[in-house]
Design a protein that fits this description.
3-stranded antiparallel β-sheet
Length: 177
């Protein structure tokens, strides 16, 4: 998919999210202020990792977001200043005894929680899987499963595709409620 159609899909997903939340009493969506190029450069320097272009476009145009209901965050993204290395214990990872895998795990950048804060489940950028366009693969981590930073192209998931899926899954889940 082209960059322009990815951007359009993300914009449409964000509009679907905003419209959906407006229909739900007690639910709100809040966007942080977009970040500037200097902040992006600071993050990349701090983590020694070039951020994926689709993620950079999102945070520099929209900021980050969270959806709350009844005082609880249902979905959201970490604010850029709060990003952190994921670094689950390499012994919990597939091939975690391999020093290259352990190094990659320590560089995987956590950018979004899965579920709630009481459980350490998250999505992170995989520094081992970068597309020719500069996108990093998005990888899920679940505290009760072996963690894997695949470097294969067959399961590559970029940020734009990921965030559209997260938003659409959220809408589908809460449409019933």
């Amino acid at each position: 998919m082209s960059t322009q159609s990815n951007e359009s899909a993300v914009t449409q997903a964000v509009e679907r999210l905003r419209s959906f939340v407006e229909t739900k009493e007690g639910m709100s969506v809040e966007f942080s202020a977009p970040v500037d190029a200097a902040a992006v450069a600071g993050l990349e320097a701090k983590y020694k990792l070039k951020l994926p272009p689709s993620y950079v476009r999102f945070i520099t145009t929209l900021g980050t977001f969270k959806v709350e209901y009844g005082g609880q965050e249902l979905i959201g993204m970490e604010e850029p200043g709060l990003l952190r290395a994921a670094a689950p214990d390499p012994s919990d990872a597939v091939n975690g005894e391999d020093s290259e895998v352990a190094d990659a795990i320590n560089q995987a950048l956590f950018f979004q929680r899965r579920d709630d804060d009481s459980v350490e489940n998250f999505w992170c950028f995989n520094p081992r899987a970068r597309s020719p366009e500069g996108e990093l693969a998005v990888v899920a981590y679940s505290h009760d499963e072996a963690f894997s930073l695949s470097d294969g192209e067959e399961d590559f998931l970029d940020f734009s595709t990921h965030i559209v899926k997260v938003i659409d899954d959220f809408i589908e889940t809460y449409a019933e409620a």
